[in-house]
Write a structure and sequence with these properties.
This protein has 566 residues and is mostly helical. It is 61% helix and 2% strand.
């Protein structure tokens, strides 16, 4: 029975993940805010359901009650993040919040499968990171002085990396982190953020070649220190991020091409200068030649992905622990083995939707500094995902970077959540600008309901400008000239009434019951109608016309210059 449940759950998890991923992209086609909110709610339900199914399998396999308690703690945490971010920051991007929680939940599932002790440790760090990230959007929105401190960012970033190169603990030949008892901190994860702010500040004020040269020199200094520390993955992230930022800043492809040529020449030089780089490149070229040595990790990663095929072996049914450091460097391979390549592709698409949101937000920002920050952070995130997945599938040499929000690593989890929170702050800044511009362009006295609930529409200029779709579903509000204005649907249901120019010539109710008469061309009273006016039209004076009056006489009267309404 347990085996049957595990096999069914394998396909169920894939289906839930595929549905969630599909909605990550269909949301971009939703213009109605209510429809978008409903879609986000469906994403949350799919995430919690997938999380429940996965932990049910883990409990059946491990038979430990602590798994249930751990699952409950995770549910409380994920719900708290969704509720707090959604209510404290009502203008935040719900898609980014949902994707962040989904990636974290996948990390919880796989880490619990690989190492229960490490998953507990990761959970504590994740909660702390979310608490810190909760305050970041406030800082981004309120402290505009951060746009002017780029020299401080540069000094702090270079100083931290130099300190790592001199005094950090060496791990497998690379100097990456400082150890404090049971915890370790990898400064390069946080310097990535500081570095983006420093480069954005320099490039946003670059007006000549001298400033560009300074920014290039600063970027090269960061990369050089990382290469000396043998942190090749971070060095590559810093380098590619700079190339993208300088292209966005200058729009000059020559600088990008020159940077690529310089980077290629530096890579060739590093291959001959550093032995550990040669080992990694040789292992990438032919990992099976040195299967017991440098190629062992890559070979095991390829075996795992092959064993999982499209649908995976099922949770706890594979052997991802055979990959050295699977929970850090090869998390994608472990996921592909037990949850399948389809699940892995969906995971990459969720990461891609995050990157699209980063770039979309940057394109809408008017402040040059903020735009470059959003581009830089988005590029940093995308390159890190590419490096860890590319290394696992032997597309590129192994770099040793983690899969953001999924792999084990406290520093990586903290820095990535801060990155997402910074972009959330920038997104809210952009929405603040939109609302301020709408208020400036709005006529005096016209607030959220400029023509009143019974004027020209119930909310002609609601919170986001001109209605949920441009000028609202009906041009000037929900019912373009209001239920009590000049017609139910832009001069009546059909141009000039339900049946324009029907038997009585001018439509059954050409000006509706709240305009200029309920039956203006009634046969019984001639052309007078019951009453020209009413409570919102003319002053209510009755015209003494009778059936024997001709149409020409009526038309002459209604165009009389003394009548102000004609």
């Amino acid at each position: 029975m347990v085996n049957l449940v595990i096999q069914i759950s394998k396909y169920l998890i894939i289906i839930l993940m595929a549905l969630y991923t599909l909605q990550c992209f269909t949301v971009f086609g939703k213009k109605d805010e209510e429809a978008r909110q409903y879609l986000f709610l469906r994403q949350n339900m799919l995430m919690f359901f997938m999380h429940f199914v996965a932990f049910m399998v883990l409990y059946l396999e491990m038979s430990e009650t602590t798994i249930l308690l751990f699952y409950g703690a995770q549910v409380i945490y994920l719900a708290a993040v969704l509720v707090l971010f959604g209510n404290i920051y009502r203008r935040a991007s719900r898609l980014l919040i949902n994707n962040m929680c989904m990636l974290i939940s996948i990390g919880f599932i796989m880490l619990t499968r690989l190492s229960y002790e490490q998953s507990i440790k990761q959970f504590k760090i994740t909660v702390l990171a979310s608490v810190v990230a909760l305050f970041v959007p406030v800082i981004i929105r309120k402290l505009r002085v951060i746009t002017k401190m780029y020299w401080l960012y540069a000094l702090v970033g270079v100083g931290l990396l130099a300190l790592v190169a001199i005094a950090a603990t060496s791990t497998y030949g690379a100097k990456l982190s400082f150890n404090f008892g049971a915890f370790s901190i990898q400064p390069s994860e946080f310097v990535k953020i500081i570095y983006v702010f420093a480069i954005a500040g320099l490039l946003s004020h670059a007006r000549d070649l001298r400033r560009l040269a300074i920014a290039t020199g600063l970027a090269a200094l960061h990369v050089l220190i990382l290469v000396v520390s043998r942190d090749l993955g971070s060095a590559l992230i810093f380098f590619i991020t700079y190339l993208v930022m300088i292209f966005i800043s200058t729009r000059n492809p020559f600088y990008t091409l020159a940077g690529l040529l310089a980077g290629s020449a530096a890579a060739v030089g590093a291959y001959f200068m550093f032995s550990h780089i040669r080992v990694r490149v040789q292992a990438w070229q032919d990992p099976f030649r040195d299967y017991q040595g440098g190629g062992y990790q890559i070979c095991q990663s390829l075996f795992a992905i092959s064993a999982g095929s499209w649908f995976g072996t099922g949770l706890c049914q594979g052997s991802p622990e055979a990959i050295p450091f699977a929970e850090q460097d090869f998390m994608f391979s472990a996921i592909a083995e037990e949850l399948g390549s389809i699940f892995g592709i969906c995971l990459l698409l969720v990461c891609m939707s995050c990157f699209i949101m980063f770039i979309n937000i940057s394109m809408q920002l008017t402040n040059r500094f903020y735009r470059l920050v959003a581009v830089g952070l988005g590029t940093t995130y995308a390159v890190q995902v590419f490096l860890t997945v590319g290394g696992g599938i032997k597309l590129i040499p192994m770099t040793g970077v983690t899969l953001p929000l999924v792999s084990y690593g406290g520093s990586s989890m903290m820095s990535t959540q801060i990155m997402f929170a910074i972009v959330q702050g920038l997104y809210m800044l952009q929405r603040d600008e939109e609302i301020k511009n709408a208020e400036k362009n709005m006529p005096s006295g016209y607030e959220q309901e400029p023509y009143g609930p019974e004027g020209y529409g119930q909310g002609a200029y609601p919170e986001n400008g001109y209605g949920p779709e441009g000028y609202g579903p009906g041009d000037y509000g929900q019912d373009p000239y209001g239920n009590d204005g000049y017609g139910r649907d832009a001069y009546g249901q059909d141009d000039y009434g339900p049946g324009p120019y029907t038997e009585d010539g001018y439509g059954e109710d050409p000006y509706m019951d709240a305009g200029y008469g309920q039956e203006p061309f009634n046969e019984q009273d001639g052309y007078a109608g019951t009453e020209y006016g009413g409570y919102s039209g003319y002053d209510g004076t009755k015209y003494d016309y009778y059936k024997e009056d001709s149409e020409e006489e009526y038309e002459a009267y209604r165009r009389d210059e003394e009548d102000p309404y004609w």
